[in-house]
Amino acid sequence: MKAKEILKTMKPYKPGKGIEEVKKEYGLDRIVKLASNENPYGFSPQVQKELPRLISQLEIYPDGYAATIRQKVADFIKVDEEQLIFGNGSDEVVQIICRTFLEPGANTVMATPTFPQYRHNALIEGAEVREVPLVDGHHDLEEMLNQVDENTRVLWICTPNNPTGVHIDQPTLQSVIDRCPEHVLIVIDEAYYEYLEAEDAFDSLGAIENHSNLMVLRTFSKAYGLAGLRIGYGVGQPEVINVLEPSREPFNTSTVAQAAAILALDDQTFIETSVEENRKNKQAFMDFCDQNDISYYDSQANFVLVHLPISGDEMFEHLLTKGFIVRSGEALGLPNTIRLTIGKKEDMENIQEEMKQKIASGVK
Ligand SMILES: *Cc1c(COP(=O)(O)O)cnc(C)c1O
């Protein structure tokens, strides 16, 4: 057998530790998972209530065109139905974009660290990956534009950026889009869009009207709390969507995911409550950091990347023994950092206490 050469250098995605795994390993009853930016308040009770009805007719293939959720999302974000492509999570939309635009001889430009799936899928397609280090948590957009040449096919922009949580403001992003050559597809990944509260946030959907080489990615996995069902989407001008469609599997989003997403979209109260709770708890966490000389990036998402006086792995291991799963930044090339999802108030108070104690004992 002969697989693609590049795969020898790649590893499968390593998920954060699972809840059951940690429970067993440390003999704990309750685990608080703050590792994957999931919604700590779950998902809409409307979805919960209707689930038995949604799980019917499983013998029938899903609607491959996702017509009902398509219409719903189009109305909600005020675009045409032909401007949407749905994926088995926005992860799959990333994969579809890579399958469509990337090949050996082509290159793609992105920040580092950022969401790892852009790089991963680009490598599998045989493209050259040009990674531009973040500067103080922010995309170095000028350098990213410098890296663009005639063989660049896709420019990835993640805002708010995972794992730093910082966003890119309107004038900055507008200027990048205006200056980026038109042969390059610009993908703006807005997985944390619902949490973005900055007044200078970029109007990405508005920009699509004037830029045929722009796509925006959104998901039901984060604020909507449907990560387990896998559904997300991309928005662009119909011409881009048409180019992507042949690379999409015919039945890539499930019947249940489509139906749940419709109900979830109708329950904006759940989103508002989740966002408000996140805002309060995030502020309290940042206040805690200020009081304890822990520096952090000002996050517009539901997670915060903090800089510690000890190694990220050490803090990760310590928190694990106390029943908290976070992400160490060490593997991301961010030494002495952890990324933690903002959880419920009480859990945050407890984790703050644990962090404080660990730091006090670690730096003595
Ligand atoms: C979580 C995440 C996604 C993937 O979300 P799915 O829709 O669950 O595939 C995409 N981009 C970023 C930046 C994320 O953090």
Automatic annotation (TrEMBL):
Gene3D superfamilies: Aspartate Aminotransferase, domain 1, Type I PLP-dependent aspartate aminotransferase-like (Major domain). InterPro entries: Aminotrans_II_pyridoxalP_BS, Aminotransferase_I/II_large, HisP_aminotrans, HistidinolP_aminotransfase, PyrdxlP-dep_Trfase, PyrdxlP-dep_Trfase_major, PyrdxlP-dep_Trfase_small. Its cofactor is pyridoxal 5'-phosphate. Residues 31-351 form the Aminotransferase class I/classII large domain. It comes from the Bacteria. Its EC number is 2.6.1.9. The keyword Ligase does not apply. Keywords: Amino-acid biosynthesis, Aminotransferase, Histidine biosynthesis, Pyridoxal phosphate, Transferase. The modification N6-(pyridoxal phosphate)lysine is found at residue 222. Pathway: Amino-acid biosynthesis; L-histidine biosynthesis; L-histidine from 5-phospho-alpha-D-ribose 1-diphosphate: step 7/9. CDD domains: AAT_like (cd00609). One of its GO terms (molecular function) is pyridoxal phosphate binding. It is an enzyme of class 2 (transferase). Belongs to the class-II pyridoxal-phosphate-dependent aminotransferase family. Histidinol-phosphate aminotransferase subfamily. Homodimer. NCBIfam families: hisC. This is Histidinol-phosphate aminotransferase. It comes from Halobacillus locisalis. The gene is hisC.
